[in-house]
Amino acid sequence: MFRVVSQKISILFLFSTLLLIACGKNTKPDNPPDWISNPGAGATGSAVTHVKGRYYQEELATSRARERLAAQYGVEISSVQTIHEHVINDRAYVTSEKQMLQQISNQTVKTHIRAIWHDKAKDEVWVWVYPVAE
Fold first, then answer.
1. Which of 3, 60, 116, 117 can bridge 47 by disulfide, Cβ–Cβ 3.0-4.6 Å?
2. Kind plus residue range of the DSSP H or E element containing 73
3. Domain residue extents for the chain
4. CA proximity to 132, closest of 107, 105, 104, 109
5. What is the pTM of this model?
6. Cα 54 to chain center, whole Å?
């Protein structure tokens, strides 16, 4: 009697395991579009999950793409970082100071959003912007 019940429980467990495996998600990750690695005359920007939601995530990605495009059209960026390290009795004290300077010539760069792609696996939004001719 015990053996029959044990076999039925084993068969039931095996069947339910197979059912769960068959019903589980079997999604493939989306391949990123070609424009992410090759934006042509445009520029791309990305942003991961934003605390204020998807709208702000897209705005941040768009802002980053516009900054990259502006850098191609005359924005000069210089960065200086100074690191000080002191070691006293096997204890290290490190301080760092970073200064960034952006100098923008009087040039307006207008952009148009060509495409937006959302990587659902990483919750990362990519934006592709292109310059607009005046």
1. 60
2. none
3. 32-131
4. 109
5. 0.58
6. 13
